[in-house]
Amino acid sequence: SASALHRPRSARLRATGEPLSHPLRARLGRLRPTRLELISVHIPKTAGTSFREALVREYGDDLAPVYDGARPNGREFRAVHGHFSPAQFWSAGRNAKMIMWLRDPVERIASYYDFWLGMEPHGNPNHDEFLRSDMTLAEFARWEPIRTEFERHFVAGLEPDDFFFIGITERYEEDLARLAGLLGWSSTGAVARTNITPGERSV
Q1: Do 20 and 29 contact (CB within 8 A), yes or no?
Q2: pTM reported for the whole predicted model
């Protein structure tokens, strides 16, 4: 509409849902102080729980866990980690480094399926539907909420080059050591993988 054309670009982008560019998010957050220096996106079943332990060792109370819809003020922490879209923290983290871990997609979806099978109902409509439908692994992989989750929720509007670091779960210890060196961490040490789904299959 004509009125939309006269709104600031930031307002138009927010109205349409288009992700804000990195230069724009820098301008939006320039005038407000922030402590946020690391945005860690936890893709389910990619050693994110283990990595959180490494972050706790490094950042302590300066790490904000972001799960189950939590929306902490990113400006008050040095690092955030959890299941969220990075856009949630773009304004607060104008200079923050974005990182995430990836895993072989077939192995990840099989682990995710087993995780959902073993999880008790907790008010998530998608999980409730999954349990009712008794779907197979193949059906789970094709199911729209799962098939589009990565692109829709975790990396919408982003390219690989937007991330400072992308680790590979199959090389967890090696890549964690590499990241610690890049960021000058001193306290991570050897953090064993946790939250491995019991009886996790290999596909």
Answers
A1: no
A2: 0.76
